[in-house]
Write a structure and sequence with these properties.
heterodimer; A: mainly alpha; B: about 150 residues; alpha+beta; three-stranded antiparallel sheet; two-stranded antiparallel ribbon; 5 helices
Chain lengths: ~425, ~150
């Protein structure tokens, strides 16, 4: 048993490549757990960061600095009455949150958290992710339709219109990145998520910096379209509180509502990981060219463990600064810090840090996108629906098309130059 | 800004400006929330809250001379002062003093009218009660003033 684990871990392949259903199950369970934990963390972080941006404190009372607030909320949602409206289409109403959650979690099948840390290396990975994540809109329309109420229907119709118009710009931006993967000796690109990151490694540049500023523009188009795609502020028209109560999930309560919440946040994580994979070099560490060499490799491989230790130190500092009256909360914070340190310390070990560092860099980049989501929400007012359509069709679509053509031209020019000069690259 | 409007749009200048504002708001110095039961707010000096009858700190005697000016000044007529002359000292002494805070609008006219600074509206503000029973304050309650509960949890 132990030998089997060792040989598998030593082989350096994904479960899909190894053809091992056992390891695939393990990976799927780990990813489901990880994503759920990330959603819980996101719940707390969003409330805290949003509060700080609005000069408030955010949750402070449940646990030290409100750390247990997400768990309290989850408990509240679980024991809440589960209402199905009298005239609702019960079967569709029941299945809508299931569809939304399942699509949101299925996308993580192809997300490469590292060279070996993906469930499988699908050769149509990007296409698969896009297809599955746009299937989520079906669940939203099902929810809006089956509620048999005006606001949810309006919300879901808005959502579908928004998804359809931004899918186009998003697709064009993605084609740009896929086009860049074909700039190699064989001239064939790839749609595999792992393949795209390996292409960036081979070309020695993240695609955001490729053909500056073309890669950057394609990335910005994607970054805007991705916010609209996940129905987040400033494009949160489907769930605009001031207009539609809560949009498509107005009639949902309790556990069903929390499934929508889970799906929304995991969809955010999923599209962020597409962006990270396509433009920000996936699991590759930053500054691969500028700070190269074994010394820097070692330094960067220590970063994951050290960052956990820094977070633990922050917790201990918070314990010291906690008012004397709140001793129990101070102790709680210290325990949390100790847990973080316990997670961080093994990451410094030589065997572990090689395997963990690619996951860490991937998660750190996704976390940056998550922060951006919160930051946008704290800053920008909501777009009007016609403005939203204008941005989608009149701005992002032409820019996406232009960048796609320019990328093709610039890429081909290099090939032509190489042919004229007489030497293959 | 000297940038032309089109350049501002292309480089999303206004959006970045807004983002920088919210980013800087995250600093701990900017935060204005006070955690009320834990840290007590600083109340303005001229805030008119819970009434108090002052006593002479040296002798412990009430400063009230039962002149009835506060009761006359009160627009709600919620102050009722009864006193009788002390045959020994020849001064009027309080027999009963009631102040009905359930009807009080904290105008402060009684405080203005008081000739000996006996009646004072203090800065204490925690006056919520579960029933109306405790709202008519007698002399003892007024002299004691408010005893805020220390929050410790």
């Amino acid at each position: 048993m132990l030998d089997a684990i060792k040989t598998y871990l030593g082989a350096g392949v994904t479960p899909g490549e190894a053809g091992s259903q056992f390891w695939a199950t393990i990976y799927i369970l780990a990813i489901t757990l990880g994503v759920s934990l990330a959603v819980i963390a996101m719940n707390w972080l969003e409330r805290k960061i949003l509060a700080h941006m609005q000069i408030r404190l955010g949750p402070m009372r449940v646990g030290p600095h409100g750390l247990l607030q997400p768990f309290a909320d989850a408990l509240k949602l679980l024991i809440k009455e589960d209402i199905i409206p009298a005239n609702a289409d019960k079967l569709v109403f029941w299945s809508a949150p299931v569809v939304v959650t399942m699509t949101a979690f299925t996308t993580f099948l192809v997300v490469p958290f590292g060279r070996t840390h993906a469930v499988t290396d699908m050769n149509i990975g990007v296409l698969f992710m896009l297809g599955i994540s746009s299937l989520g809109v079906l669940g939203i329309i099902m929810a809006g339709w089956s509620s048999n109420s005006h606001y949810p229907l309006m919300g879901s119709l808005r959502s579908s219109a928004q998804m359809v118009s931004y899918e186009v710009a998003m697709g064009l931006a993605i084609v740009c990145a896929v086009l860049m993967t074909s700039l190699n000796t064989s001239g064939t690109g790839t749609l595999s998520m792992i393949g795209i990151v390996e292409a960036q490694q081979a070309q020695g540049v993240w695609f955001i910096f490729k053909f500056f500023p073309l890669g950057l523009i394609a990335f910005v188009v994607f970054a805007i379209a991705m916010v609209a795609e996940t129905n987040r502020a400033p494009f949160d028209l489907p769930e605009a509180e001031s207009e539609l109560v809560a949009g498509f999930h107005t009639e949902y309560s309790g556990f069903r509502w929390s499934l929508f919440f889970l799906a929304e946040y995991s969809a955010m994580l999923a599209v962020s990981s597409i962006a990270v994979t396509l433009w920000l070099g996936g699991w590759l560490r930053p500054f691969p060219n500028w700070l190269s060499g074994p010394a820097w490799d070692l330094a960067f491989s220590l970063v994951p463990g050290l960052s956990f230790l820094v977070m633990a130190a922050g917790c201990f500092l918070g314990t010291i600064r906690m008012p004397r009256l709140l001793r129990a909360q101070g102790i709680g914070l210290a325990v949390f810090g100790a847990l973080l340190a316990l997670v961080g310390l093994p990451m410094l070990l030589p065997g572990v840090r090689e395997r963990v560092q690619d996951i860490f860099w991937f998660v750190a980049k996704v976390a940056f996108f998550m922060y951006l989501y919160i930051w946008y929400r704290g800053t920008f007012p909501r777009y009007r629906f016609d403005q939203l359509m204008k941005v989608g069709w009149k701005v992002l679509l032409p820019i996406g098309l232009g960048v796609l053509i320019l990328t093709a031209v610039v890429g081909m020019r290099q090939e032509l130059l190489a042919a004229v000069v007489g030497g293959a690259r | 800004m000297s940038l032309s409007p089109i350049l501002r749009k292309v480089f999303l200048v206004d959006l970045v400006k807004g983002l920088s504002v919210t980013f800087h708001n995250q600093s701990e110095k900017e935060r204005i929330t006070e955690q009320y039961p834990l840290e007590r707010p600083v109340v303005c000096e001229r805030y008119r809250g819970q009434p108090r009858l002052n006593v002479d700190p040296d002798t412990g005697e009430s400063l009230c001379i039962v002149c009835n000016l506060c009761a006359l000044a009160c627009p709600e007529q919620l102050i009722v002062v009864k006193g009788e002359r002390n045959p020994v000292t020849k001064r009027k002494q309080v027999v009963s003093w009631t102040y009905d805070i359930s009807r009080c609008m904290f105008c402060g006219l009684c405080e203005e009218a008081c000739s000996t600074d006996a009646l004072e509206l203090t800065q204490d503000f925690e006056m919520a009660l579960y029933s109306r029973d405790g709202m008519v304050l007698d002399q003892a309650a007024l002299e004691q003033g408010q005893q805020p509960v220390r929050y410790a949890k």
